[in-house]
Write a structure and sequence with these properties.
The structure is a single chain. By secondary structure, this protein is of the alpha+beta class. The chain has one domain: Hotdog Thioesterase (Thiol Ester Dehydrase, Chain A, Roll). The protein is 23% helix and 36% strand. It has four helices and six strands; from the N terminus they run E-H-H-E-E-E-E-E-H-H. Strands 1, 2, 3, 4, 5 and 6 form a six-stranded antiparallel β-sheet that branches. The chain is elongated and about 50 Å long. The two termini are 31 Å apart. 27% of the residues are buried.
Length: 154
């Protein structure tokens, strides 16, 4: 299987996380292939795993603090079909971070081959308003920067 050029998958620095699952029949369409919308649920799980890997619980730290990671854009590129019973690993990492925005890049692996790759873009929001997270929640911003392996915005 050929690899995609590097520009197809945004460069990720710092920590990466992996979340695993097995494709279930209920996640597939009538042709027995993964329903495309399910991978965005997997991306969400991998994002939560990435946060846990840097010591931040999305459910105990982020949500109770009033911070929302509003999805502003999401995309996925499907290279290989995924079928019921396929074991998958979803790799996630930060591809861009600023006080206003956060981008995650993902790769879905099956048997050592990349089957899907994608990205989600987020805005930091509190009380339904976009915020500068560096000012509004400096400890969260610091943890994100450290997890991204950066000392300045990327």
């Amino acid at each position: 299987m050929r690899e995609h050029p590097s520009q197809d998958w945004p460069e990720v620095e710092g920590q990466r996380a992996s979340w695993g699952s097995t494709v279930r029949w209920a996640e597939c369409d009538a042709a027995g292939i993964i329903f495309h919308g399910r991978v965005f649920e997997w991306f969400s799980e991998a994002r939560v795993a990435w946060l846990a890997g840097i010591g931040v619980s999305y459910y105990r730290d982020v949500v109770p603090s009033g911070v929302d990671l509003l999805v502003t854009q999401a995309g996925a590129h499907f290279r290989e079909p995924l079928k019921p019973g396929d074991a998958v690993a979803v790799e996630a990492g930060i591809s861009r971070l600023s006080p206003a925005r956060l981008h995650f890049a993902y790769r879905v692996w099956r048997e050592g081959a990349m089957a899907v790759f994608g990205e989600t873009q987020h805005a930091f929001v509190m009380r339904s308003r976009a915020v500068n997270i560096k000012k509004a929640h400096p400890s969260l911003y610091g943890a994100l920067m450290a997890g991204a392996g950066r000392s300045e915005e990327i």
